[in-house]
Amino acid sequence: MTLAEQVQYQSATGALSSVWLLIAIPLASAAVLLLLGRKADRWGHILGCASIGASFVLGLWYFFTLRGLGHKAVSLDLFNFIQVGRFKVDWGILYDPLSATFVLLITGVGFLIHVYAVGYMKEDPGRRRFFGYFNLFASAMLLLVLGNSFLMTFIGWEGVGLASYLLISWYQDRPAAATAGKKAFLMNRVGDAAFLVAMFLMFANLGSTDFATVFNGVGALPHGVTLAMALLLLAGACGKSGQFPLQAWLPDAMEGPTPVSALIHAATMVTAGVYLIARSNPIFDATSLGQTIVVAVGAFTLLLGCVIGCAKDDIKRVLAYSTVSQIGYMFLAVGLGGGAYALGILHLLAHGFFKAGLFLGAGSVMHGMKDQTDLRRFGGLWRYMPVTWATVGLGYLAIIGIPPLSGFFSKDPIIDAAFARGGWQGWVFGLAALLGAGLTAFYMTRLFVLTFHGKKRWTDDIEHPHESPGVMKLPMILLAVGSVAAGGLLVYGGFTTWLEPVFGTTEVPGHEPNRAMMIGISLAVVLVGVAIAWLLFRRGTALVEQPARSPIVRAARENLYGDVFNETVFELPGKLLTRAAVFFDGKGIDGIVTGLAAIVGGSSSRLRRLQTGFVRSYALTILGGALVVVAALMAVKLG
Amino acid sequence: MSGYLGSYATLGILLVVGVVLFGAAFAGNRLLRPHRPDPGKLTTYESGVDPVGGDWAQAEIRYYVFAYLYVLFAVESVFLFPWALVFARPGFGTTTLVEMAVFVAVLLLGLLYAWRKGVLRWT
Amino acid sequence: MNPVLAADITLPHINYGAIAPILILLGMACVGVLAEAFLPRTLRYPVQVLVSLVAQVAGLATIIGLALSNYAKKPTLTAGDALAVDGPGLFLQGAVLVLGIVATLLIAERSVERGGAFVAQAAVTAGSEADAEQARRQPSQTEIFPLSLFALGGMMLFVSANDLLTMFVALEVFSLPLYLMCALARRRRLLSQEAAVKYFLLGAFSSAFFVYGIAMLYGFAGSVKFHDIAVAAISSGKSDLLMFIGLAMLAIGLLFKAAAVPFHVWTPDVYQGAPTPVTALMASCTKVAAFGGILRIFYVAFLDSRWDWRPVIGVIAVLTMVIGAILAVTQTDIKRLLAYSSIANAGYVLTGVLAMQKDGISSSLFYLVTYGFTVLAAFGLVTLVRDQDGEATHLSRWAGLGRKAPVLAGVFTFLMLSFAGIPLTSGFTGKFAVFSAALGGGQTTLVIFGVLSSVLLAFPYLRVVVLMYLQEPAADAPTVAVPGALTSAALAIGAIVTLLLGVWPSVLLDVANSAAQFVG
Amino acid sequence: MHPVIPYVVAALLFGVGVYGVLVRRNAVLLLMSIELMLNAVNLMFVTADTSIVGVPRSGQVFTLFVIVLAAAEVGVGLAVILRFFRLRASVETDGVGAATETDAPREADAPRAAVRPDPDGEAR
Known about the structure:
The structure holds four protein chains of four kinds. By secondary structure, chain B is an all-alpha fold. Helices cover 63% and strands 0% of the residues of chain B. Chain B has a domain at 61-116. Chain C has one domain (20-515). Chain D has one domain (4-117): Helix Hairpins (Orthogonal Bundle). Chain D contains five helices and no strands. In chain D, helix 1 packs antiparallel against helix 2 and helix 2 (27-51) packs antiparallel against helix 3 (58-88). Chain D is mostly helical. The model of chain D is unreliable at 97-124 (pLDDT under 50). Chain D has helices spanning 4-23, 27-51, 58-88, 98-101, 119-123. Chains in contact: A-C, A-D, B-C, B-D, C-D. The interface between A and C is large, with 56 and 72 residues. Chain B: InterPro entries: NAD(P)H_OxRDtase_bac/plastid, NADH_UbQ/plastoQ_OxRdtase_su3, NDAH_ubi_oxred_su3_sf.
């Protein structure tokens, strides 16, 4: 889309005028589940699955309806939400190829995870409530991708954050879970604040947050404003998608039940950041510096995730850092602009399948191994849980990009596109992406080999690891099929053309790379990674943590000091500010009073008797404030 | 006697004259009187009765209540004066009278409340 | 006869219909005093509750009638231009009464604490044998009802006062009962009376500043009517010095009541010490009244000089938002936490006020109502968490409440989310409204600070939620009282309105929009 | 008559009142300081009144209002402070807030000398 072209949304008619049902059905189900209480305990999980399934079926119907339309972007205004002066926001929905794609991912993969959770949460007395939160999560995510203005997206955005908070801290008796939930919520708030400020910038400069108005008006704005908007949106996206520097919450979010991890990491939540940047493509297209920063964040995070992933021994944490790194690929892609937006979304979809499959597989392993998560305590499991082995194996091959599985079709074009950027940037980002592919191959091989092959290194209490029940196996199989087939189907099914109305082009910017050579190189890198890992770990590993020999390993085990970074950058100033404020509120004022009392001839006894909370120091504060206000007014007037 | 502070000059002179007169009277007194103190002369004079106890006596709390009731009603009654100046004018008449009646009635309500709560009984 | 007096003093015409709501409230308060004086003890409570609620409902009905019969569109001045009956005035009066009714429900509750939250005989020395006796046995005194009616009437007078003197009288009329109400707690009477002493002394101190400002402005403009001040401000040839000192002094008196930094110092102590239903009344109704006065003064009397004072008040707004939020983080007492949060919220309203546009008025009005309902419900919930010696307000005592009382914890979490500005609660729509109005008025800096402080403010709220859900309750954890019908009603109203205005804010925003025109 | 001197006197009076509020510890004296501030305002009203031509003597009437409200304020204030005095045997405002830390009231040394209110009066 060139900037001169107008973004236009037709109003919805016919079947699509009921598109709001997509959000309403899971929301209503969540309300029923949460409000009805114990009465719904027996059938709550069925309702939860049914509602998301219904949304999926509806989503398919709308999808095919949209395919048949000439103008592939329909908007639906439901009712006036809030109006202040000339600012007006409607509850409105935008249904276009991008949202349609996300709807299918969220409801489709979401449905499978719901079904899986029926089995996984069977023993949990709060299963009904869990499904209530799950539905809430899904409906918030649907609102996020279906809103027709940044404000609608933001409401979904906050809803997702809230639901994730509830779900991550599900195991309330574990302090780690509580802390993790809190951390997720708070770090998301940092991103949310940036998003809010970006929205207010839109308001201030364009008078609206409607996608149509903003995208049509953004070309006329000064570059500084556009850049600020882009960077703030990026910061918001980083918060939700776990990108540097706000990545630390995402691995901690593993404290929730495994279906939650799968839902957060594959179908919802983390993809929100990618969605936001892809959706705001006119803003990012208008500022090449902003795009470069997105690319840089993506490239840096993908390496960061890989490096930490290599050093972790907890199966879910390895997968979590793998998510961080894969989302980095997506950021890299959407930052490149043009046709690469579609590549990012393509990778997102493919990732949705194989990552959900991997998480469900991990959950299945834990289910069979009495909630053990330590990779060093697995080994040789392929004999005991063949279905899990096969599904995780397919997901593993997909994520490292072995042809013809989906990762190959989605990741390699991103690496190509990064090189195609040209100049030193092309080299830096391209090599980062290539190196990331090799590292991914390494740590995923390590995970797979340590879990399913080699000797048994189980703890003593485990006698018979068992395969999971059918209700858990079925989603895993379906997701494995998706991991295998999604990439090729999407690429040859014209996915990039389907998204063309949103991004305006299918052309990846830059020069055309030598496809065959690129594929050869990246496959070679991947195979080297696999080989090294296989050689190192085929005999298993030591059962205790080895002393870190190099600073890199030590740093990687410390999550590359992500937490330290966050503490220094976000918490420390806050703490200092708080202390300073408390000091001035209490001690400072008292100090002044003490001094004043001494000046006006107070005795030492008077000084000693001063304590906080006195009327006089309050009066002094008020007087001081009064004097400053008068002086300031004078200064403004006379100065 | 004109200029910036002119109109205050009279006031100033009056003050000065007052201070001078006062000072002169006391100075004269001091110069002329004999000065022979003894303990009996230095005790506090209480109408001829021998002084007993300390100089800090606690006042009955009730004095405060009564004094306070008096002050309130007395102060409220200042509104009667401006009213008295205008109520007889043409155009004011009955309305003004009724309004003042309401005002007094509200005051009376307060008094009534005080009475019912037993504030006015002295035992 | 005095020649000056002979000048044209005419009998001011009083449109009794237009000021009927105020008269109803104050008249019924007098009825309440009579009932207190003459009814036997057992009858007083039901009669007082009835009188109180009837007065407020009747007042509200009258206000709605006035609003429907075109007073909002065709505003009038009455009583010698001393009172303005216009859109914002009626809206604010209505807001005071609506919030007042809910607060009255909390005040009238007698089943949570046996006999009610107020002391039976204020004159009995705290801690004595007789005091313990009355705390156990005797029902609350009922003077609280006429006192609250006087306070509410004063607030209504305050928001529709059209000259500074009327405003000062109204300020005292609503402040004096509040000082007394602060001192009436049944438990922790020492704390309560301290709060009253502090509130009184500082309130009197600040109202002295207020009236000093009035005198300055009178000297400047030769009149205390807002309109005359506005005219004098644009006429050249007068020294602005008096006007700006006067404005500053006025602002101090008003910002004190609104609890803006640095005039907020009393708030935490008083909110903590006062009986919780009274705190709820102060946090909701007093805030509405204070900002009603601020709106009218800024938008009617000082509109044309806004370029000079807006930066100064803007700095106060920033300080209020930031310091309120930061200090809220460090609090360990739920009532103090809510107090600091109410300080920060005053900053948000101030941000809306400073838009100095029509949106500024409507969004501030909207925010005041949304905040009022949420804070009423929050304080209502605080009354339910109890120890042997009254409310357990220390945060550590709230640990694990989510398990003991899931409904209470759920509602409280919802209210906290609203305070934190999460969408689909009125906290979000309110903040959204004031911030976008401020942006429209060019106050970008304020908005950025506002957003940042609201993010910061989410921390303490979240801490409470975490405490309630994620920590083990202590062995001697406080009990959660079963709310009586009145408290339940108040809680339900507060929570439902918080949700309703979060999902469908245009119900109220439209009303606020159509009301947002001051009469000059 | 030039109004500068009365204005300055009023400002000084106000300043003395503020100073009193800040340095006095006795709550009653604090209250009196506040009264001083209000009287400064009265002086200003009367002064401003003389310098405004052609308007009815509104400034003087305003003074009446301020006086009445000051009296009401004193009434409520004294009531609150005396209650507090009965509890703590002290009207020193420096102590206000000290009890926030030590919740146990110092009832032991509360003055018994003060007359108890008539129980009958309240019992009606």
